[in-house]
Amino acid sequence: MSTSSLEAQAQEAEVGSGALLPDGPVRARSAKIGAIGAGAIMADQHLAAYNEAGFPVVAIASRTKGNAERVAERWNIPTVHDTPELLIEDPDGAVLMLGTMFAPIVDRDQPDHGFTHHAGDVVRISSPALGSLVGQVQSSEGCAPWTFGVAALMRNLAARRLL
């Protein structure tokens, strides 16, 4: 399906109707990924999706190297860097993926263990141009499957003339 036909379908979709288009086909899987973070979002969501899609994750780093080593072993990631800075400097990684677009920087439960949401936490992400996304944290087993990918989001925003 061509980009123009996807755009035409997006424009035809009724805003707020809940009718969403599936993500378009993946055009390339050659970009190597370096993952920053080894928490639940990265380990259970991002890396699972990259693995399912066949994207090569070549390196990982976290503030706690032991966490990065455990996640690397789980997902067969060949290189674990001592720090995120060393991963950024690694010439083998082309795309850096963070565990979340909005990362708290204060430790929550224990010093040097980072921030992790707990069940029941209310999370609010907002932008003056796009509004707010508010959700309550729960385990993935208790959530409906996520089917609204990044391409669908961009089409939805474009259809509402927010891009």
UniProtKB/TrEMBL annotation:
InterPro entries (UniProt xref): Gfo/Idh/MocA-like_OxRdtase_N (IPR000683), NAD(P)-bd_dom_sf (IPR036291)
Record domain Gfo/Idh/MocA-like oxidoreductase N-terminal: where: 32-96
Superkingdom classification of source: Bacteria
Region (Disordered): 1-21
GO molecular function: nucleotide binding
Gene source species: Pseudoclavibacter helvolus
Name of protein: Gfo/Idh/MocA-like oxidoreductase N-terminal domain-containing protein
TM segment ranges: none
